[in-house]
Amino acid sequence: MEELLASAEALIGIRSTADRPGELHRALGLALDVVGPDFEIQRFESRGKPSALVTHPDRPGQPRVILNGHLDVVPGTPDQFRARREGDRLYGRGAHDMKVAALVLATVFRSLAAELPYPIALQLVTDEEVGGFDGTGHQVDQGVRGDFVVIGEQSALRVVTESKGLVRARLVASGQTAHAAYPWLGSNALITLWEAVDRVLERYPVPSAEAWATTVNLARIETSNEAVNQVPADAVAWLDIRYPPEDGELTGRSVAAIVEHLRSVAGPGVDVVVDAVGTPHRADAGSAEVVALREAARAVGYSGELLRKHGSADSRFYFPLGVGAVIFGPAGDGQHGPEEYVQISSLTPYAEALSIFLKGLPA
Q1: Which stretches within 252-346 are classed as H helix?
Q2: How far is CA 191 from the centre of its chain?
Q3: Among the options 2, 45, 115, 128, which is catalytic?
Q4: Where in the chain is the domain with CATH 3.40.630.10?
Q5: Is 334 exposed, middle or buried (CB count within 10 Å of its CB: 0-12, 13-18, 19+)?
Q6: What are the pLDDT digits (tens) for 94-103?
Q7: What is the residue-averaged pLDDT of the chain?
Q8: Phi, psi angle pair for 9, to nearest 5°
């Protein structure tokens, strides 16, 4: 445990954010050092985001299980990149999401890859926080496949079989500039935009409590207008949309179809641009792998209950291929916040549950 925590503290100290490609490489290198020699490492890179797939040379073939972890983090203040321990908590950016879990996956892989009667793989990526398209998505595009995938995102040893999809979109309004004293001579793009945003939020209101429903976050509104005494002629709103697999208006739809749907909701006067689409994810809760993983969690004293996640994860890249993927990680809290931490006492049971699961699967 002390060896693992020392590596975790070093990894937390690396500012592996999307705008620091050198630090992404450093984080990946540290995790691969934990795995150690005697393994085959297939390296990938897409748009400056490095990733790796690690396998054992004596276990060729498609992996029975892929252990997936991401090493990138969202930005934070300098003090958040200095790990600190307080009792049963290890604090720091990425402690819970999900550098420490990735190191646990690496140690479990290192211990079991040679002795299992089937091949497994360790998938390490560095772009999950910015969409995952250049990490897991890129590897999948290059032909990487597995029978079952365990994503080490935080779950307190519960098994996440469903997570929401993601649409990142922009509403773009154009108008006509004029002097603010004579607004009837112009057309205010901000007003046009706000009316469109209001219609979107009327269609997808912010829930008053947790709800398994499509939600829209108005992330930013901008205009190039800098003068108070001028009618703005342009405005843009950025939307972050999360939707469950049950949403037939978004799930499985093409980008063009999603654009048309959002245009019909937003109404006249705005154009819709979709910048990214991530599918939702659902795994068969009755599959042999999910049942076995839940039993392994219970064997080490945790509930192993099923869970839904409102956030998206790299499991969505496997869902369209019919590959079962779940989220299963240690306990903690505060991801993306100033007091992010992983619960240290959950790390050994987490590793043990993974080991029990892997050893119990048929070849």
Answers
A1: 255-266, 288-299
A2: 34
A3: 128
A4: 2-163+280-360
A5: middle
A6: 999 999 999 9
A7: 96
A8: -65, -40
